[in-house]
Design a protein that fits this description.
Ribosomal Protein L30, Chain: A, 123 residues, alpha+beta, 3 strands, 40% helix
């Protein structure tokens, strides 16, 4: 071999390069948190104003969104007000249940009732 002839030498792979490639090959789809609907139930003890105020304080909904929910719960008997991961849905349900009585009705002594309902997975 001549002295000034270049020889290509393949550099050995570093351990981190090997680990990174094997991780790429075994990557799995990220698991999604199961989602739950927060269901608000109708009763005759709360006003539309109460529902609108509660939806604004708990979910940040504006007056129009609150009115849609108040009308929906009054008309249908129950309505889904949000779809959230379980822990957040539980918190929001509990906030509805502890929101307090309707100050617009003297005879009202309790909060509204809310439950959770799992969202079916479309797979």
């Amino acid at each position: 071999m001549k002295e000034n002839q270049n020889v290509a030498v393949k550099k050995p792979k570093q351990k981190s390069e090997v680990d990174e490639k094997s991780r790429e090959n075994t990557k799995q789809e990220p698991k999604h948190l199961p989602m739950y609907r927060v269901i608000l139930w109708n009763d005759q003890d709360h006003t539309f104003e109460y529902v609108i105020k509660m939806m604004h304080r708990i979910f940040g909904y504006n007056k129009a969104q609150g009115m849609i929910i108040a009308t929906g719960v009054h008309t249908c008997g129950k309505i889904a007000v949000a779809t959230l991961p379980l822990e957040v849905a539980e918190l929001r349900r509990d906030q509805i249940r502890s929101f307090g009585p309707d100050p617009f009705l003297e005879e009202c002594v309790t909060s509204m009732y809310a439950t959770l309902e799992p969202v079916e997975d479309d797979k």
